[in-house]
Amino acid sequence: MDARELLKRYASGETDFNGETLTGINLRSADLIGINLSHADLQNASLVLTYLNRATLRGANLAHANLSGANLNQADLSGVDLNDADLHGAALQGTDLRGAILTLASLLDANLIEADLRGTDLRGADLRGACLRGANLRVERRAYDSANLRGANLRGADLRGVNLTGADLSGVDLSRANLREAILREAILTNANLSEATCVDAFLTDAILTEANLQDANLKNIKLSRANLVEANLQNVNLQGANLAAANFSKANLTGANLSQVNGSRADFSRANLSEVNLSNANLTDAYLTRTNLQDANLDGAYLIRVEMSTTNLVGATLRDTIMPDGRMNT
After folding, report:
1. Residues 303, 330: contact at Cβ < 8 Å?
2. Is the sign of the CA dihedral 277, 281, 282, 288 positive or negative?
3. To pair with 60 at 20 to 30 A between CA atoms, which of 70, 109, 191, 218?
4. Nearest Cα to 262, choosing from 286, 287, 241, 236?
5. pTM assigned to the model
6. What SS3 class is residue 286?
């Protein structure tokens, strides 16, 4: 079927084109609102600026298709193959993308607000500048795996409030991204780049951040309890008021970081570099500080009750009104 025939039939009121072969079809700027293209072969199709609001494309083949600027708001794209597709600037607000294949796809500046991305394969996708506020990428063990974003580029993306519970974000570029109030419980962020990211009030409990780069990130009031940050780079981060209970910072670099008023009870900072760190009024009850470098750190007003501090480097550190491991106040 060619473009002329499809548009003529659609104009006459026909909307069901389930399973049609439409390889390479040019439907640029066409108005196809509500059309059914489920399981259709649209490989290499041109759908630039096409109106596909509320369309059904379930299981369709859109590999290598050009959908830049297309309107796919509230469309059903579940199970769609969009490998290497161009979705630059596409509108995908409230779109169902469950189980879709978006490997190597370009989603530059795309609008994915409140999109359902559970089980979506986004490996190698380019999401720079995309808006994913309120999007759902959480793991659904009964029906969908977590979204796979390994190696994806989310630099500067707006992910405020997004649900990425259990998602695989290994090696992902999230530098300068907005993750304010995002939910990343049990997410895998090994070797991820979160430098200069905003993660204020985000939830990363039980997340894996080994060897991740969080330099200069704003992590104020973040929840990192039980998170694994072994050998992570946290230089100059703002962790003021964060919950770090039972988190593992072993061998991490926190030079110059702000950890004032944190809850670091039972946290492991062994062999970590905390030189010039601000730990004023921090709760470090039962924390592990063996061979930790606290040179020139500010521990004024901190609680160090039952802290393991054998071989801790405290050269130049201030300890005014600090509650020491034995319970006495240092004056």
Report:
1. no
2. positive
3. 109
4. 241
5. 0.85
6. coil
